Amino acid sequence: MDPTSLYVMSVEEVAWGSSLVAITMVMHAVSMLLILRVTRELANRIESERSHILPVAPVLTAAWMITLTHLAEVGVWAGFFSWKGLLPNGSISYSFALLSYTTLGSEYYLPLHWRLLEGMLAMAGLMTFAWSTGVLLTLVQVFQDWHLKRWSRERMPKSPSAPVDAPSAKGPD
């Protein structure tokens, strides 16, 4: 057996990997709170609209912002890989980071003494995607509840009643 093919985890690798996961999670936490705030404000602005389509704007806005958040988080990992010279260039670093973050895998690998980061990057991606899914599910539930309430009011006999409210993304204050 070739002794150079043996992998031994290092304290440096664990420290950098843990730091990158922590940075990713902090970025995600701040972003998810910002997304909830922005979508609540958007929902409040459109609450008097009678459109069936416009109330989906908070969900679409959240999806767009979540996508940008994930791309920025991948950028942190790619920046680290480029800074350390672990991959040939910045484009390959970003592509590798994105494919690892989404758990698709890549044709590239990190040098042997940095391989733990590949798994840690995938773990960070799994955790942030789960969190993003929770935020989107919350917003979609509000949107669907609003439509169900509106449809049931439209089926009721006409009587003087209060206007149907648009969805409001209730999140932390």
Produce the secondary structure layout:
Layout (H helix, E strand, L loop, with lengths): L10 H35 L11 H27 L6 H12 L14 H40 L18
Helix pairs in contact: 1-2, 1-4, 2-3, 2-4
Give the biggest beta sheet: none
In the predicted model, the low-confidence regions spanning at least 5 consecutive residues are none
Radius of gyration: 22 Å
Number of E strands: 0
Structural commentary:
Helix 2 (57-83) crosses helix 3. The mean pLDDT is 88. By secondary structure, the chain is an all-alpha fold. It has one domain: Helix Hairpins. 66% of the residues lie in helices and 0% in strands. The radius of gyration is 22 Å and the shape is elongated. It contains 4 helices and no strands. The longest helix has 40 residues, at 116-155.
Throw out a few tags for this protein.
single chain, 173 residues, mainly alpha, Helix Hairpins, 4 helices
In summary, what is this structure?
It contains four helices and no strands. The protein is mostly helical and 173 residues long.
